[in-house]
Amino acid sequence: MRTAMVDRPLDPCALLDEVAQHRNGATVLFVGTVREMNDGEAVSGLDYSSYAGMAESELATIAREAADRWATNDIVVEHRTGSLELGEASVVIAVAHPHRGEAYEASRYIIEELKKRLPVWKREHYADGRSEWVTNAEMGNGKSEMGAPRP
Predict the structure, then answer these.
(1) In terms of DSSP H, where are the helices of the chain?
(2) pLDDT tens digits along 111-142
(3) Residue 93 pLDDT > 60
(4) Which of 10, 53, 90, 93 has the fewest CB atoms within 10 Å, measured from its CB?
(5) In terms of Cα–Cα distance, which of 87, 86, 91 is closest to 44?
(6) Which residues have a Cβ under 8 Å from the Cβ of 134 and sit 6 or more positions away?
(7) Domains of the chain and any CATH numbers
(8) Do the Cβ atoms of 124 and 34 come closer than 8 Å?
């Protein structure tokens, strides 16, 4: 099992290789990417900021919870920080397990908990030149300046 907050492009295939084991019958790969529209607005890119030490710790805790709950250590999660362009991967989760149901459930658990608990902030840049900090749906109701880190 491995987790990391990184400031470089993510390589989903490399994460798949890390969890590949002959004992597993299923491997699930989740890749979250920067999309071109959010809440009806054209997005041109975004920036992710984090409280690095806390984010690393919480990401590892979430992965450990999934590993314990679904009895697999074949989990790798990387979350990107810095500036990302449209189509770039912002988070990659690879989970392998002897059974597909457990692999899917563990992967889903990781992304849902990550969205709720990880101290990462997202600033969207829009096609019209504006930029705005965005909160997770679980933490509020869409876009907000509240709780955003200072540039």
Answers:
(1) 12-19, 52-70, 100-117
(2) 999 999 999 999 999 999 999 998 765 444 34
(3) yes
(4) 53
(5) 86
(6) 38, 122, 123, 124, 142, 143, 144
(7) 2-129 (3.90.1170.40)
(8) no
